[in-house]
Design a protein that fits this description.
The protein has about 130 residues and is mostly helical. It contains seven helices and no strands.
Length: about 130
């Protein structure tokens, strides 16, 4: 029974991860998995994507708002770029992303918001016009 639950969470996680982050990103992550990182990749696929992102209590756009805020607050800049793209996929507009970053300037600090603006501007421009 536990194995069935883990398999279902893994399948749901792969599906949601592909929908939110895009198939190319997920394929790269899977292709880059090694014996050393296999357990971590399985954990985030099952737990983060298959258990948390699939819960009915929040919509994906709300989860994106929360995720962006946490990533800015903690200075996880690589993950921030990935989740700015995901936020767009989840229906956030550029103006909503801007407002979120302005809000974090007050509660997470101006330096964190300054970095977030730089990253988000680059990512959003790439999404609209392709990499420069």
């Amino acid at each position: 029974m536990l194995d069935q639950h883990l398999d279902e969470a893994r399948a749901a996680g792969i599906r949601v991860r592909r929908e939110v982050l895009g198939p190319a990103h997920v394929d790269r992550a899977i292709a880059g998995t090694t014996a050393f990182t296999r357990d971590f990749q399985d954990m985030i696929t099952r737990y983060a994507w298959g258990e948390i992102w699939t819960r009915p209590g929040l919509q994906r756009r709300e989860r994106s708002l929360i995720t962006l805020t946490a990533l800015i607050a903690l200075g996880h800049d690589e993950e921030l770029a990935m989740h700015v793209r995901a936020a767009r996929t989840n229906g956030l507009t550029d103006d909503e992303i801007k407002e979120l970053i302005l809000q974090t300037a007050i509660y997470c600090g101006v330096p964190a918001a300054n970095t977030a603006f730089r990253i988000a501007q680059r990512v959003l421009a790439d999404l609209d016009h392709g990499p420069r």
